[in-house]
Amino acid sequence: MLESEPDTDNLHRDIYRLFRDYFEKAERKRRWSVDHDIPWDQCNRSLNPAIADVVETFCAVELYLPDYLGKLIPQVRANRGRAWMLANWGYEECKHSMAFEDWLLKSGARSEERVADLHAAVFSHEWDLPHDDAVGMVCYTSFQELATRIHYTQLRDVVRRDGGCPALERALSLVATDEAAHADFFRKLVGLYLEYDRTGTLEQIRRVVNTFQMPAVHMLAESRRRKQQVLDMNLFSVPIFFDQVLAPILAGLGVTRQELRQKTVREAVILTPSSPD
Ligand SMILES: [Fe+2]
Ligand SMILES: [Fe+2]
Question: Which of 250, 186, 170 is nearest to 22 (CA)?
């Protein structure tokens, strides 16, 4: 575990600095209001209903926030940069489900009752961490945040092509900008872990790449239909993952695909227990 390694103090100091830099920029440049920064009087009430279905799916994924925070914070409670980041991240993420839910209601796409049903459905299942390792979760989050940004910007383009909706387009732009900032922070955090433990961090990246999927969608009712709608609108796909998520993250980290594919000594021993020491 990294926490028992001699460089832990320096690593935690560097992570806290990274968080302070992120936080200062967020405070200065990126704060926005759900109530005042989205033109709620400009909702297009005649968009393709499939768009509202996808907004509902995205809203549901964002609604799992209590599980995300409840499971992630205990992993890092002694690591102030990461714990404080999760507190700030949670504040930013809570606005995302509010913005999407407000659009569903104000556009007339969903009734109060239907939204209440969505809440009940979400909280009837508990989301669990896809990786029990704190470094693995940073790697997962860096991929997931960039993937989320792509889902939202692609949906904004679909809305524009479908006749436009100033309220939804603005909401998606604001949320996507937050997701881009999250992706940038978590990618830099993976970079720090690589500096301190390249072999172990590469193992975690490899695990994440081999098993990646978006959080919580599989837990929702009609999950197959919801996933198919995302594919049909070309909001996300395997090629998009490789070209627009994996490639830029690896490039930003200075990791080649060849290096990622190489089995580390640690893994080789685990995978081939009969091999000589
Ligand atoms: Fe979000
Ligand atoms: Fe995010």
Answer: 186
Cα(111) to centroid(ligand 1), Å: 23
In terms of C-beta distances under 8 Å and separation of at least 24 residues, what long-range contacts does 210-215 make, across chains too?
211/130, 212/140, 212/143, 212/144, 212/147, 212/241, 213/130, 214/61, 214/144, 214/147, 214/148, 214/151, 215/61, 215/64, 215/68, 215/127, 215/130, 215/144
Instruction: Answer whether residue 264 shows pLDDT above 90.
Output: no
Side chain identity at 94, as an amino acid letter? C
Question: Residue 234's CB: how many other CB atoms inside 10 A?
Answer: 12
Q: Which ligand lies nearest the alpha carbon of 95?
A: 1
Confidence of residue 134 (pLDDT cuts 50, 70, 90): confident
pLDDT of 187 above 80: yes
